[in-house]
Amino acid sequence: MLLDLRIRLKWRRDRKHLPLTGEHWELYRILHRDSWRRARRLPDLVHGRSFNDHVQWLKLFDQDERMVQLSDKVGVRSHVEARLGSGHLPTLLQVGKQFDDIDWDALPAAFVVKATNDSGSVVVVPDRSRFDREAARARIERGLRREFGWKKGEWAYSGIEPRVLVEEYLEPEGALVPPDHKFHCVEGRVAFGHFIHGRHQEVREAITTRDGEVLPHTLYFPGGAPFVRPSEWERMVAVAEAVAQGFRYVRVDLFLHRGRVLVGEMTFWPNGGCYVEPGQVALGERMEFDRSYVKPPVYQRVRRRGTA
Predict the structure, then answer these.
(1) Helices (runs of H) and strands (runs of E) counted in the chain
(2) Is residue 131 domain-resident?
(3) Is residue 18 included in any domain, yes or no?
(4) What pLDDT sits at residue 161?
(5) Cβ contacts of 114 within 8 Å, gap of 6 or more
(6) Does 11 fall in a domain?
(7) Cα end-to-end distance, the chain, whole Å
(8) Could you report the per-residue pLDDT of 25-83, keeping only the tens digit for each?
(9) How far apart are CA 55 and CA 147, in angstroms?
(10) Are 10 and 32 in contact (CB under 8 A)?
(11) On the CB side of 267, how many CA atoms lie within 13 Å of its CA?
(12) Residue-wise pLDDT tens digits, 116-163
């Protein structure tokens, strides 16, 4: 009750400085409650300069229905192909509305299964002979039923049609899975990179500049990742920026695999704007975008459409 009172009082103050309307209230309350729960602070939407504050502002005032398609692991593929042509996505093997729509016997010896509407419902199958189909069914179907993102104010996920995607397995070139290269793009230009190394083992990260120089910040995992600027770096930056054009902010996730630059996902609100590492404050200074205009709220219509 005390938290709700604080949020209502803050709403009244913020309305004096921000283009908030009654249509924003539901989302405003949700993102403030989530910020307090996970980051133990309420976002500063008027004067805030941190990464988290910027992301919360974007949730409210940069609502674009295209974000529904681009948050969808299937829908994003047509956007990538339109911007880059073919050859920049893992090979799509099958798509179905339900787990049992997939013809499992027709798949190759290795593959990856994902729910298209959330984050984390992924089953990596490096050897089909050891594939536990029932365990995979339970995980994927749980993801399909999940109302992902709404409690964090990540409204676009509510409009995604839940589906099952099966795509190419990226064979590791060494003992570790391919590292993640996440490019945070502001006004269509890479503001900083986020390199994640050693997933499923000892995970480390490095934050880099657009030129590939390591910065003294962390965002989520411990620092010290063995980052070496790849020879394909300029091509990776160009791919991220081509995909990000037309958006104030988006994170473009890439994989570098045997010389191929592959787009994994587009993410508009990383970690829901609730990072707790102090690096998120410094990195917010690299996220200068145009706040001179706001877009009308569409999140309620998107959610109604997704739950119809």
Answers:
(1) 9, 10
(2) yes
(3) no
(4) 93
(5) 73, 121, 122, 123, 140, 164, 165, 166, 167
(6) no
(7) 31
(8) 999 999 999 999 999 999 999 999 999 999 999 999 999 999 999 999 999 999 999 99
(9) 21
(10) yes
(11) 20
(12) 998 889 999 999 999 999 999 999 999 999 888 899 999 999 999 999
Asked whether the beta carbons of 181 and 255 are under 8 A apart, the reply is: yes
Which amino acid appears at position 7 of this protein? I
Give SS3 for 264.
strand
Q: Which strands sit side by side in the sheet containing 249-257, from one edge to the other?
A: 214-215, 204-208, 189-197, 180-186, 249-257, 260-267
Does any domain span residue 308?
A: no
Cβ contact 209:233 at 8 Å: no
CA distance 59 to 249: 11
Mean confidence (pLDDT) of the chain: 94
The token pair that represents 161 in the structure block: 């049609």
Beta-sheet pairing, 164-167 with 180-186: unpaired
The range of the structural domain enclosing residue 87 comes to 66-284
pLDDT beyond 90 at 178: no
The single-letter DSSP state of residue 152 is: G
pTM: 0.94
Count: domains in the chain: 1
CATH number (domain holding residue 195): 3.30.470
Percent of the chain's residues with pLDDT above 70:
98
DSSP state of 259: T
Q: How far is the C-alpha of 191 from the C-alpha of 205, rounded, in Å?
A: 17
